[in-house]
UniProtKB/TrEMBL annotation:
This is Peptidyl-tRNA hydrolase, mitochondrial isoform X2. The keyword Nucleotide-binding does not apply. Keywords: Hydrolase. InterPro entries: Pept_tRNA_hydro, Pept_tRNA_hydro_CS, Pept_tRNA_hydro_sf. One of its GO terms (molecular function) is peptidyl-tRNA hydrolase activity. The lineage of its organism: Eukaryota, Viridiplantae, Streptophyta, Embryophyta, Tracheophyta. It holds the Pfam family Pept_tRNA_hydro. PANTHER family: PEPTIDYL-TRNA HYDROLASE (PTHR17224), PEPTIDYL-TRNA HYDROLASE, MITOCHONDRIAL (PTHR17224:SF4).
Length: 209
């Protein structure tokens, strides 16, 4: 089994050999979720859904297993990209894009850095990065549980039709955000995407009132 560093080096060599010009620095996109049919299409796994949507849009097969994760590798506009879906459970994702209750369902937010915001998967990632929080993250809003519903039960539910439509639309928006990220960098991507998503958040709040 190749380590993540050897996998990345092998990919960079492949990318460089296919082009006469110097190869841009690669991007690694990791979607958080849980493996297994039990968790498919639930709120808990929108990070996996985001990776799958991006992989389909760029024709990147997710068929390689390395370091307890499913990997895909490809080129996006001449830039090498690695996609990963950790096959450890959410709270252990640091061993190897995530759902967020603090955002309305279907609203996205991209951040250059930050804390874990009580998200156990992100907390695990930061822990395994030895406390380093200097990495970008794409937050995918799933909304809050209704009434006194247990948040854990809410996370493990599938979306109703209206919420599913919002999430599917958000995933397509997320694909465009990630393409902008690769092309223009994190700062410019966050500036443009977050402004657009802010107005979307306000529209959804108005509909819910």
């Amino acid at each position: 089994m190749l380590s993540s560093h050897r996998l990345l080096r092998r990919f960079l060599c492949t990318a460089s050999s296919s082009s006469t010009s110097s190869c841009p620095k690669p991007w690694l996109f990791i979607g958080l979720g849980n493996p297994g049919e039990k968790y498919q299409s639930t709120r808990h796994n929108v990070g996996f859904d985001m990776i799958d949507a991006f992989a389909r849009s760029q024709l990147i097969p997710m068929t390689t297993v390395h370091c307890k994760a499913l990997f895909g590798e490809g080129m996006v506009g001449g830039t090498p990209v690695l996609l990963a879906k950790p096959q450890t459970y959410m709270n252990l994702s640091g061993e190897s894009m995530y759902d967020d209750m603090d955002l309305s369902c279907g609203v996205l937010r991209i951040q250059p850095k930050g804390g874990h915001g009580r998200h156990k998967g992100m907390k695990s990632v930061i822990y395994h990065f030895r406390g380093n929080r200097e990495f970008g993250r794409l937050r995918i809003g799933i909304g809050r549980p209704p009434g006194q519903m247990d948040p854990k039960a809410f996370l493990l539910q599938k979306f109703n039709r209206t919420a599913r439509e919002r999430i599917d639309s958000a995933l397509q928006e997320g694909v465009e955000i990630l393409k902008t990220l690769v092309a223009k960098g994190l700062t410019e991507c966050a500036r443009s995407a977050n402004m657009e998503q802010k107005y979307k958040h306000l529209r959804l709040q108005t509909l819910q009132e």
